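$ ./design --mode recover --in tokens.txt
reading tokens...
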């Protein structure tokens, strides 16, 4: 049996689809709060063994006598603009600690969601080395909660035989339709172009960066699934630890916007606007995952989607026909 938390969300629902496609049907227990019914389409018509509400899951998990082969813990509070540290501590830190503890006691492999937001402004680089975790200075409460859990994990003497913390960079793709402001830039670009014929990008408010030249490591969700599959299928050979989930190649927002126009068969029309002040101080101008650990230690060799390839697939096979993954 596999336990998957955060199934209503973007990445979690895509993982459920992948599990179904790979023969996991009535042996997947899914966990979420399930109160936002507009997210139900993310897992509609998917096969699961049991739905467990987030509020009762920990008790269920701590007392179940069923054999659990793997926990994929993707559930979290992910709003990077929220300053409610109490809810982040409750859902992202303490909740995850209890899951880790049970997995350790029963030696259940655990894959959990961390975040590239833990790297802050990138002052210490973007290496997934365990040595820099304590030095990182995240820029918001969400990122602090993720880094706090990573740091706690690394201090534990007792661990499951296999565990992976996934430091997700800028993931985009189908099933993020519910995320509103927190959806990917590709998602917002597509809808802005559909409604106005142009795309608005933030101006640069940092010396050394021209408008539109801010860079991020954008990774297509199908590449995320490919990496997860590699870890699930190679638990005996992959070292446990924190791993970056990026491509290793930063691209500009201008590249992103132009690629979206091309995927929609339209001529690019870009307008630069002021960045909202509430995110200006915590805005990341450059992220690029160091992927050497994944390649050299976990022996991951698959080729990543280019930004152009990923956007084309997302736009033409999901956004335009309004399909879910």
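writing sequence...
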């Amino acid at each position: 049996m596999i336990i998957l938390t955060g199934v209503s969300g973007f990445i979690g629902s895509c993982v459920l689809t992948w599990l179904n496609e790979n023969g996991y049907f009535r042996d997947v227990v899914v966990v979420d709060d399930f109160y936002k019914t507009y997210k139900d389409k993310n897992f509609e018509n998917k096969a699961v063994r049991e739905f467990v509400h987030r509020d009762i899951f920990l008790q269920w998990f701590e007392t179940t006598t069923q054999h659990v082969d793997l926990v994929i813990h993707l559930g979290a509070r992910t709003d990077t603009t929220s300053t409610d540290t109490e809810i982040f501590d409750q859902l992202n830190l303490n909740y995850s600690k209890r899951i880790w503890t049970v997995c350790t006691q029963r030696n259940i492999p655990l894959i959990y969601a961390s975040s590239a937001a833990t790297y802050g402004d990138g002052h210490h680089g973007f290496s997934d080395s365990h040595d820099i975790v304590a030095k990182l200075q995240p820029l918001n409460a969400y990122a602090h909660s993720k880094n706090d859990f990573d740091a706690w994990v690394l201090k534990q003497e007792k661990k499951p035989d296999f565990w992976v913390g996934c430091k997700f960079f800028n993931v985009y793709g189908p099933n993020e339709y519910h995320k509103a402001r927190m959806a990917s830039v590709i998602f917002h670009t597509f809808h802005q172009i559909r409604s106005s014929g142009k795309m608005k990008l933030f101006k640069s408010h940092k010396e050394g960066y021209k408008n539109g030249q801010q860079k991020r490591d954008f990774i297509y969700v199908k590449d995320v699934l490919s990496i997860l599959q590699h870890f699930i299928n190679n638990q005996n050979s992959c070292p446990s630890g924190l791993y970056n989930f990026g491509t290793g190649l930063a691209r500009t927002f201008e590249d992103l916007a132009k690629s979206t126009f091309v995927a929609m068969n339209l001529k690019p029309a870009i307008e630069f606007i002021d960045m909202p002040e509430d995110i200006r101080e915590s805005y990341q101008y450059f992220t690029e995952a160091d992927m050497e650990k994944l390649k050299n230690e976990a022996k991951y060799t698959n080729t990543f989607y280019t930004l152009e390839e990923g956007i084309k697939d997302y736009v033409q096979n999901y956004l335009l026909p309004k399909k879910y993954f």
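exit 0
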